[in-house]
């Protein structure tokens, strides 16, 4: 194959992988706008309504590390194709669900197959663009889609709910899957980890149950942080995760080689990803509720009202891509979260009698600008310097941080919302009081993300530039 044809195929592979990232991320939010109609048709309780979102993010985040290792050992293209097909079948089941239990279970299966699909796609991107300027561009595209995908999901969900039916928010995935399977078969090359590849079964069990218990414990906090069940599941989750770390230190072929997270810069990127995920998945749900319940927008209007967010990310992404090699990722990942925090504080000023233009639109634009500065460099930094043998595991860790952050964020924000809503009085005033409290909490989280960047992303501008461009790094640790 000629060099020109290989380069052409690499960019077509990027299109396929970027599409995969879009469908995985937007499925975390596409049902948000459809939830009110789905709740009425299927008779969901408020708790079940929340689990339609949480089931996807929880299964996705809890199984990502296992999915990453399966991709490394079994073959990344093979895992990608199986993940795509399974994701499509689960989407069809959810779209045809006749009750809340079926819908929640289908969403969990979507998350499970996404946990196989997402790390395979990101690992394929890593080995397809190993270094240099092309890698920088590829990861900028991938990161921008990761940041915009949640908002795109809200828009698409609004259009489908308004003009078709809420069920099409799930059935639409079939079209993405068909394109992904055909494109994957044509343009993706198989790769896998070399050497002795044995699955870490004990590690898989402890991390899956640990993350699941932790997220479930946070979800129970809605009824009170001091309840025995809340404390019990949080403690169980923390204990299992400690056990997981111990197992990873002892086994020959760990599910998550601790060398991946031992590097200070990479660990900082994972923490920032966790906090950013809490905002993009958790806080955006309450913004959706405000648009529809308080402002009275239709699903379509609510979806269109969220368009400034992906537009702002798209406009900022090329600017950040040019800045990244010049200034390195550290200034961007310090300033970006502060802009996001400012947007959350602005949105916390919403009132029951306010307007979209005055109280929501400026905050959405600020949020898009901030997230553009966060997501474009973030995954590149998180995966720079990772050995090919660990590409799937590192990709899974990056994705897992985002999804677990979203799951925990949604649970924590729900608990804060319930605690903040006053009893009695005008219900719309009560709703906005609760929404405001969640936005303030999100702002605090993003300030912490900025502090993490300032503290952990240190080590010299030259090294950080290497992290951002994917050039060889002499020492990581």
From TrEMBL:
Major subcellular location class: membrane
Classification via PROSITE patterns: MFS (PS50850), SUGAR_TRANSPORT_1 (PS00216)
Location relative to the cell: Cell membrane
Gene3D superfamilies: MFS general substrate transporter like domains, Multidrug resistance protein D
Topological relation to the membrane, as annotated: Multi-pass membrane protein
Classification via InterPro entries: MFS (IPR011701), MFS_dom (IPR020846), MFS_trans_sf (IPR036259), Sugar_transporter_CS (IPR005829)
Keywords in alphabetical order: Cell membrane, Membrane, Transmembrane, Transmembrane helix, Transport
Protein name (database record): MFS transporter
